[in-house]
Amino acid sequence: MQENRRPSKKSLHALDYLNLFLADVRDGVGPYLNIYLKGSQHWNPGQIGIATAVSSITTVIAQTPAGALIDQLRQKRMLIVLAAALVTLGCLCIALFPNFPVVIGSQILIGIGAAVFPPAIAAITLGLVGRSRLDQRVGRNETFNHSGNLLVAILAGSIGQFIAPKGIFFLVGVMAIASACSVLRIREQEIDHELARGDGEERDEEKTGHQNQYEGIMKLLRDRRILMFATAVVLFHFANAAMLPLVGQLLAQGGKRNGLDGTVYLSACIIVAQLVMIPSAYLAGRLSNGGRKRIFLVGFGVLPIRGVLYTISHNPFFLVSVQILDGVAGGIFGVLSVLMVADLTKGSGRFNLTQGMLATSIGIGAGLSNLLAGFVVQKAGYDVGFLMLAAIAAVALAVFWFFVPETKEEKKAQKSRPATT
Q1: Of 265, 232, 223, whose CA–CA distance to 39 is shortest?
Q2: CA dihedral defined by 52, 54, 59, 65, rounded to 10 degrees?
Q3: Contact, 181 vs 81, CB < 8 A?
Q4: Does the pTM exceed 0.85?
């Protein structure tokens, strides 16, 4: 097993481009679906909530099996290609046939594709660079990912304003094709697949098959540290997932403001957040070696503040400025979630399975968030919806603060223990 790995520049640059082009492909069209269905197709908030939740629920169902599959298979690059193809097909169908059954079916395809990307990219990254360089590499991955989101937001705003709102769906399809080309440029022989799955004993896994897989899942579920971390993550995304889509609906319902379409304002929200996420992710990767939890607490702490601020004013310029806090939280979360899972699963051979289970937790939070927020807003208004999400965010902060341990310090303590006996 090689910890200090030295992959070629070609593979590392291809990983950069993969994260750049996968930006919005990970989540399909994300909040742009909400503004398209609200502004162009005149769907009500309840219908939009159902359409958004379907993708998240599908991802919930698919993510844990996807993580287990990535642990077992060496064809990680081809899984990403297949997932990108599903997202492309779903986006094209929404753009060409925007009726309720087609949108729901397309969201299912997008949800399946989205389940593959996070654990597959994390596995390829770990298999390429090893643990000793994982902190900085994950930070670099997220920096390129947020740069891609920034690029897509600029292009999407321009397309929505000057061409047509549905053009955004074709843009995501082009990005998906570019991401598939990028991942194929990563050299397969440079990926250590045993390291990519968390240093597990691959031969034993092959011998015991499904029984050992089941035992591995049960062992993870009995780990209190992983359970508390997953609980905090569920609550975080329950609070976070619906905030930007609700902002998008606010921007869309008033039609054009100051001569600008709602898509332009939503793109501005994303641009502001991504501009902050780029340095936030970079610094999180650099500073995390001194401790994970203290940095992650900042990401959890800004979320309830953001939810309350949305109720102060619905002025589009104010709503855009609040996205600075989204940038802080998003940049930190993208880096620290991968690093903490890597800490918690070292030596288990279940890194990608745990990544999938964590992604399932995220999907549960996101799906419930969009579904519940859609109906709350329909019955009580946007301000009540934002305050509900802010309260959930405060609970997420409390759970993480009091019940999730510092994984970096625990690892050091374990190393020092034998020297004292």
Answers
A1: 265
A2: 180
A3: no
A4: no
Nearest of 405, 367, 339 to residue 142 by alpha carbon: 339
100: amino acid identity, one letter: F
* Amino acid, res. 298: V
Read off the tokens for 291. 């401790």
Yes or no: say if 81 and 186 are a contact pair by the CB < 8 Å rule. Answer: no
Q: How far apart are CA 179 and CA 279, in angstroms?
A: 23
For residue 319, give the nearest of 374, 286, 281, 270 by alpha carbon.
270
Q: Which of 246, 87, 107 is nearest to 171 (CA)?
A: 87
- The most distant pair of C-alpha atoms in the chain lies apart, rounded to whole Å, by 73
- 210 part of a folded domain: no
pLDDT, residue 256, reads 59
The two structure tokens encoding residue 256: 């054009």
Q: Is the pLDDT of residue 292 over 50?
A: yes
Q: Which domain holds residue 277?
A: 10-194+217-405
Q: What CATH number has the domain bearing residue 171? A: 1.20.1250.20
With vertex at residue 364, the alpha carbon angle to CA 363 and CA 369, rounded to the nearest 5 degrees, is 95
How far apart are the C-alpha atoms of 382 and 366, rounded to whole Å? 18
Question: Reduced to 3 states, what is the DSSP secondary structure of residue 197?
Answer: coil
Q: How far is CA 81 from the centre of its chain?
A: 18
Contact between 19 and 121 (Cβ < 8 Å): yes
pLDDT of residue 182: 92
Residue 380 CB contacts under 8 Å (≥ 6 apart), including other chains: none
Q: Which residue pairs from 208-211 have beta carbons closer than 8 angstroms and sit at least 24 positions apart in sequence? A: none
> What's the pLDDT at 220?
67
Question: How many domains, the chain?
Answer: 1
